Amino acid sequence: MGTVQTVQGAIDAEQLGLTLAHEHLRFRDEAVAAQWPGRYDEQAELDAALEAVSQAKARGVQSIVDATAMYGGRDVRFMKRVAEETGVQVVACTGIYSYDHLPHYFVTRDVDAMAEHFVSDIETGIQGTDIRAAFLKCAADAAGVTENVEKIHRAVARASVQTGTPIMAHSMPAVSTAPRQIEIFEEEGVDMSRVQIAHCGDSEDLDYIEGLLAKGVYVGLDRYGLEIYQPIDKRNATAAELLRRGHAERVMISQDFCASIDWFAPEAAEAFQAAGAIRNWSMTLVFDEVVPALRELGAMDDAIFHTVFTENPKRWLTA
Ligand SMILES: [Zn+2]
Questions:
Q1: Alpha carbons 145 and 136: distance in angstroms, whole number
Q2: CA dist., res. 192 & res. 269, Å (int)
Q3: What does pLDDT average to in each consecutive run of 10 residues of the chain (319 residues)?
Q4: How many Å lie between the centroid of ligand 1 and the Cα of residue 97?
Q5: Ion ligand 1 — residues with CB under 5 Å?
Q6: Rounded to the nearest whole angstrom, what is the distance from the C-alpha of residue 98 to the centroid of ligand 1?
């Protein structure tokens, strides 16, 4: 079935095994981290990543797809260290995670120039290493598909078409970004069976999700634990219905967990937890609560579990 690039080199796709399709070993702003490194505790971040990945490994996870791109502090050396110390395979990406802003560097360069940066990460290596990207990442959020967001999507699409690399697109169902994101990919000639629309599980609107599925994409039910966007029981109801309707081969279940994240001051993070905005968010929540609940609902058996957590990530990552 081909090979997949990991931070430790190319592996046979069959070796991916049980895979979490959307997580982050660390999430932080690379500009802030570069300018005020003293505000970050690298050891604590490493420890948090090792702990989270080890917990996942204890549930049988063999591979983690790390969706951290530019503006999320992507650092493939950090990822490689976690992979080496845990024995869990980590799959890295290229792309830009922006809801609108682009640096002048990319504003003044055209779509093809941006795409060439992504292709270099895919074909040569990332950040001066020989670690190669296995997929492309872009995002659309509350601001919608702005001019800059469209530029990133077109660059990602062109890099995908040129190299045969799959795409993960962060979406925001609350403002229905995905139909336009898909439209751009279609205009650029992307193979829609290699596209994963992330965060569809934030929606309970089955018509919306099935409208995306009709385009041939994968849908990510991938923010389990982020109650602020959708509580777990509602996410489960949506997941169960999609599985019952026969979409098992197009569903990704994950947590979008960040082993560490710098978006909020520590006291704010504690307040979110206390207020119920996040609940049991971890790299094992889907195995501890979600899979048992889906089995209870009669929506998941061993075969569907294998399809969702092993076959789907492998099929998405390989041609
Ligand atoms: Zn993510």
A1: 17
A2: 37
A3: 94 98 98 97 97 98 98 98 98 98 98 98 98 98 98 98 98 98 98 98 97 98 94 97 98 97 88 89 97 98 98 95
A4: 9
A5: 67, 256
A6: 12
